[in-house]
Amino acid sequence: MQFNKVLDDVKLYEAGKPIELVVREYGVDEKDIIKLASNENPYGTSPKVTKKIQDIAKNMFMYPDDSMFELKEALANKFNVQSSNIIVGSGSDQVIEFAIHAKCNKNSKLLMSNITFAMYEIYGKQTGATIIRTKDDEHNLEQFSKLYKEHKPDMVFLCLPNNPLGECLDTKDVYEFLEEVDKETLVVVDGAYQEYAAFKDEKKKIVVDELISKFPNVIYLGTFSKAYALGGMRVGYGIAKKQIIQNLYKLRAPFNITTLSLAAAIEALKDEEFVIKCIDENFKEMKRYEEFALDKGFSFIKSYTNFITLKLEDKFISSEVAQNLLQRGIIVRDLTSYGVNAIRITIGSNEQNTRVFKQLEEVLKNLK
Amino acid sequence: MQFNKVLDDVKLYEAGKPIELVVREYGVDEKDIIKLASNENPYGTSPKVTKKIQDIAKNMFMYPDDSMFELKEALANKFNVQSSNIIVGSGSDQVIEFAIHAKCNKNSKLLMSNITFAMYEIYGKQTGATIIRTKDDEHNLEQFSKLYKEHKPDMVFLCLPNNPLGECLDTKDVYEFLEEVDKETLVVVDGAYQEYAAFKDEKKKIVVDELISKFPNVIYLGTFSKAYALGGMRVGYGIAKKQIIQNLYKLRAPFNITTLSLAAAIEALKDEEFVIKCIDENFKEMKRYEEFALDKGFSFIKSYTNFITLKLEDKFISSEVAQNLLQRGIIVRDLTSYGVNAIRITIGSNEQNTRVFKQLEEVLKNLK
């Protein structure tokens, strides 16, 4: 059967390997597996959120509140915007999907950094749009600016901080670039890891209400999957001018967020203390990775997130390192498919990281 | 900002009003509200499923198993197909979305019954496709056949049994019609309420592996939202030949089902006893609605689902009846927007239905 031709060119996203799969495929005992491949919060879900879900689990038979009244009010309050400025997606992923599908078609162009979140391209290809990438791996605004003028793309993607590399542009530089961009171009400012960047360095912090009031063509994305520790519950959001949100809403299916996910997100917003504690721990533990890298002679990208990207230079092959770690029950992300010889490791808990260093040390010794 | 022109013509789905909204807007006490507007299972979630979710709630921070290995194995086993014949969506809704977006564009035509599930049209319009409807409200295969030959649509939708009317075609008649359909036409057989129809009348039962092996151009849809009592968890599925599934997969975002939803669906499949008990109760209670309707001189559509559609003829105006019930805390679905003067009521529990009859009786008296 024939389907739309544009699909021929669509590649599937490669998800971090789940623990169940490593148990099945490598016969490693489940309790010995450490998954540091998907930038989940290693401190687990907030106990307050877990309690809430246990209390209301029996309500699963009821459709969710499709207006998402309570969650949108809570987000509006947090970001100092109106509910009408917000759209909630099944992960911020889904808001990216809405934005691209609402704005683009096969005549469109999308501008993004050379190495950035894979879904921008995948959703773009679904519409048949052309992908334009800067030359440098990390975000380079001069290159963005030059390519913007050359191609006049319909959408621009800034991942702040950037997944999977971890770097983050300064907000003032981003503002300067945004001044140059035509108001018909939809700019996605992807803040999936913003909580980490804002904590580490004030210069990286994005003030969302300021951003969207200065730039009516920008949509800001946030997620509950990282700092808020709800990766499994699929809740993210987009914040923009009402006119943008209304158009994205036309592609939102009813009930796109589950009853329990809505409740979990609402509860998670009430426990900011937990979030701050997790982020604080994250950067303490990250120092250990930086020291490990220096010790082994790897370079690393200064990270404003909950992961670190180790460049293996010409010393090791990243796919081999990742595969060997996998056999030892440690799941990390090999970045070969992104075109770099590097591994991305989520910063785990203190105990997890100690085990990672030990295993990685042995793997490197064996591969030498 | 300009978005894709096709969106101008897209209408939003009108969800059944949630209880929270009735509390907010009408000041009715939450415990006095009966929601019979979204065909949820009035017997609640299976206690075994609730227990499972409570046990694993703390795992919410982990991304779901994107391969959905366990759920797909369980479904493959239930339907006697392979995992590769299955795609899981955030409700069967999302599988409809995948199918329409994979197959259609602005040159496409979609054939469906005059009154049927609203999302077929909404997703169709998102691609700019043209909607063709039969003349009769209920499914009429002669009309389908005639319009099929006339328009050669890219997709055909058969809702078996039909939402929001409740009628159901005989499977042998469906097979006869499918014989006439070109193998390049994708036919959606929507079995969201099949468990009810198959229980009530063997002639309505669809044997899925037989269906897709006889007709390689058919995709069968099922859901956990109705008989399996997981409306809030958003899990549905499509079953078809591998080639169709592979194309739909290109539009599936990673992690489209939450960690808890996957677990709930897997557990729900283990408790078929609960499902059968709910369906049995459903049809016992439906008899009371049929008697009520006869008593009041309304006609009703013989229903193979967990709801009943009462036609108010020229006696009452459905929007008024629904609005008056709402003020009394009883939420039903007014079908005015579908072009019929009727209300659709989900068959509630015995106690709920008794209250509905009492309130409805009073409303009708007041409106006379």
Automatic annotation (TrEMBL), chains A, B:
<dbReference type="InterPro" id="IPR001917">
    <property type="entry name" value="Aminotrans_II_pyridoxalP_BS"/>
</dbReference>
<comment type="similarity">
    <text>Belongs to the class-II pyridoxal-phosphate-dependent aminotransferase family. Histidinol-phosphate aminotransferase subfamily.</text>
</comment>
<keyword id="KW-0808">Transferase</keyword>
<comment type="pathway">
    <text>Amino-acid biosynthesis; L-histidine biosynthesis; L-histidine from 5-phospho-alpha-D-ribose 1-diphosphate: step 7/9.</text>
</comment>
<dbReference type="InterPro" id="IPR004839">
    <property type="entry name" value="Aminotransferase_I/II_large"/>
</dbReference>
<dbReference type="InterPro" id="IPR005861">
    <property type="entry name" value="HisP_aminotrans"/>
</dbReference>
<dbReference type="GO" id="GO:0004400">
    <property type="term" value="F:histidinol-phosphate transaminase activity"/>
</dbReference>
<dbReference type="InterPro" id="IPR015422">
    <property type="entry name" value="PyrdxlP-dep_Trfase_small"/>
</dbReference>
<comment type="subunit">
    <text>Homodimer.</text>
</comment>
<keyword id="KW-0028">Amino-acid biosynthesis</keyword>
<keyword id="KW-0663">Pyridoxal phosphate</keyword>
<dbReference type="GO" id="GO:0030170">
    <property type="term" value="F:pyridoxal phosphate binding"/>
</dbReference>
<dbReference type="GO" id="GO:0000105">
    <property type="term" value="P:L-histidine biosynthetic process"/>
</dbReference>
<keyword id="KW-0368">Histidine biosynthesis</keyword>
<keyword id="KW-0032">Aminotransferase</keyword>
<feature type="modified residue" description="N6-(pyridoxal phosphate)lysine">
    <location>
        <position position="226"/>
    </location>
</feature>
<dbReference type="Pfam" id="PF00155">
    <property type="entry name" value="Aminotran_1_2"/>
</dbReference>
<dbReference type="InterPro" id="IPR015424">
    <property type="entry name" value="PyrdxlP-dep_Trfase"/>
</dbReference>
<dbReference type="InterPro" id="IPR050106">
    <property type="entry name" value="HistidinolP_aminotransfase"/>
</dbReference>
<feature type="domain" description="Aminotransferase class I/classII large">
    <location>
        <begin position="31"/>
        <end position="358"/>
    </location>
</feature>
<protein>
    <recommendedName>
        <fullName>Histidinol-phosphate aminotransferase</fullName>
        <ecNumber>2.6.1.9</ecNumber>
    </recommendedName>
</protein>
<dbReference type="InterPro" id="IPR015421">
    <property type="entry name" value="PyrdxlP-dep_Trfase_major"/>
</dbReference>
